[in-house]
Amino acid sequence: MDQFVLPDNQLLGKEQVETEDLPVISQRIQDIIEVLNNFKELGDHERGRSAYVEQLIKDMAVYYGYSEYLLEKLFNLFSVSEALEFFEANEVPRPVTIRTNTLRTRRRDLAQALINRGVNLEPIGKWTKVGLTIFDSTVPVGATPEYLAGHYILQSASSFLPVMALAPQENEKILDMASAPGGKSTYIAALMKNTGIIFANDSNKERTKGLVSNIHRLGIKNTVVCNYDGREFPTVLGGFDRVLLDAPCSGTGVISKDPSVKINKTEKDFILLPHLQKELLLSAIDSVDAKSSKGGYIVYSTCSVTVEENEAVVNYALKKRPNVKLVLTGLDFGREGFTNYRGKVFHPSLKLTRRFYPHVHNMDGFFVSKFKKFSNKYELKRKNDDEDHKVSKTKIDK
Amino acid sequence: MRPLTEDETKVFFEKLSKYIGRNIVHLIDRSDETYYFRLHRDKVYYMSEALMRQAISIGRDQLISLGVCFGKFTKSKKFKLHITALDYLAQYAKYKIWIKPNGENTFLYGNHILKAHLGRITDDTPEHQGVVVYSMSDIPLGFGVTARSTVETRKLQPTDIVAFHQADIGEYLREQDTLF
């Protein structure tokens, strides 16, 4: 086999202007990956590894249609060959999945009813007793009489996870901070068997329509739907046993569902979104009552895979709120969260968080973390922080 | 959110009793917990006392929905039952109609029920009586009003209407924007 030679920049500039020949680029991606996997023997040591990586990122951005900025960000999460798998998986749609509404029916009965209508299905996996994967169907799955009667809801497999991690118990008071369209809220209600109280909040009034619709269709009776900015909690209401925060995010885990993410997310989004997420998470933590007999838990999740929106946010909350700690999510699969990433070192307990990837778990990219709040007070340490802050500030002033 | 006035209660209960008759008592006097009907932005919601007390903290403008919505008062102060009340109507219905599988879809598209699609009907259902509509596998599909009494339906042609459509669960898709 001929040894692959990295094209030099001048040649390349010309090529990019003249032709965007995808087969050529695709071949070059393969070649570069091969070189990178065995750089010692195949690589051009004069130009160095980084030149190859730089070229690879450029080519992949063109080939898969991402902005270079986002592609590099996602590329850095993985090893070189795994990154390729990740981007490939984003081109393929995830299977359609539904969740049985256990308030109305049982999974076995539902599966039978749908099979009779010509739906081809199978349980999602061992980890859930309520999920079904739809392979193909002769009828629209979102409009069968069973669907309209609230026997199931269309819900992606990944969004079962934060609710399972939250593990709500009967008769608790629970807050779902960003709840529309209600897949997770209604799952919480089903696990609580319609007892206790759920506050399903969403900051977007338009989106609460679908939320109210789903709640009624699925026969949920214990829910209050409200329309606040999540950051207004706990001023509005606090003392919850558990809070679920499935935060608004860039959606880098669901690119197969919404490819517009590939180009419309800029550097600014990755500054503004984490900022909002941090504020929301602190509100979520403050809304929980640590003295709750069975509860005192917060679950933070996103459908994004970037570190800025996940580990960094969790790490920030651990620093700002010494009265919480990370605990096991109770999910027995998924990868451990990063404890360090490109020079940033996070709290070692971040390995308790879980990451899910499209190319590994065949579900949307997802992140789940679970906190336990063990005290309602944390004043002392915060004061110190403030003083430190003041001191350093005055020093600068001088 | 406020309790219903006397007039509102009268109008509301009159409508409700068309479907569940005296079973309304079971909604008000419950053995498990006290439940209330409350009015919020012209809509009537049904909720437990605990839920109501907690929801007081939510501002009027921010409160979207709580418990189960039974329906709403029109501008002319009539009451319109919504499909969202179906759970309770189905639980306490006095008169029922079951439709055959081939009639399910037409009903779920908002059509009246024809004799040809009629599977079963409660004996002695009078004319113009509120009825809850079920599939043959006992899934509640909606509600309506009978066109004829049970006895008279036996004489009807297959294409004649036995019950008029009022609400069906297809509205969760068709009317999502106006209903909620």
From TrEMBL, chain A:
List GO terms (cellular component aspect): nucleolus
One Pfam family matching this protein: RsmF-B_ferredox
Q: Which UniProt keywords apply?
A: Methyltransferase, Nucleus, Ribosome biogenesis, RNA-binding, S-adenosyl-L-methionine, Transferase
Q: Name one GO molecular function term.
A: rRNA (cytosine-C5-)-methyltransferase activity
- Which sites are catalytic? 303
Ranges for domain SAM-dependent MTase RsmB/NOP-type: 86-374
Biological processes annotated in GO: maturation of LSU-rRNA; rRNA base methylation
What residue ranges are annotated as transmembrane? none
Q: Where in the cell is it found?
A: Nucleus, Nucleolus
Cited NCBIfam families: nop2p
Family to which the UniProt record says this protein belongs: Belongs to the class I-like SAM-binding methyltransferase superfamily. RsmB/NOP family.
Annotated protein name in UniProt: Nucleolar protein 2
Give the species.
Rhizophagus irregularis (strain DAOM 197198w) (Glomus intraradices)
UniProtKB/TrEMBL annotation, chain B:
Mind listing the UniProt keywords for this protein, alphabetically? Answer: Nucleus, Ribosome biogenesis, RNA-binding
Q: Where in the cell is it found?
A: Nucleus, Nucleolus
Major subcellular site: nucleus
Give GO terms for biological process: ribosome assembly
Got a GO cellular component term for this one?
nucleolus
Taxonomy, superkingdom:
Eukaryota
Keyword Nucleus attributed: yes
- Enumerate the spans annotated as PUA domain: 95-170
Single annotated GO MF: RNA binding
| Similarity remark | Belongs to the NIP7 family.
Instruction: Explain the purpose of this protein.
Output: Required for proper 27S pre-rRNA processing and 60S ribosome subunit assembly.
Q: How does it assemble?
A: Interacts with pre-ribosome complex.
Q: Which PANTHER family match?
A: CYCLIN-DEPENDENT KINASES REGULATORY SUBUNIT/60S RIBOSOME SUBUNIT BIOGENESIS PROTEIN NIP7
Name of the protein in question: 60S ribosome subunit biogenesis protein NIP7
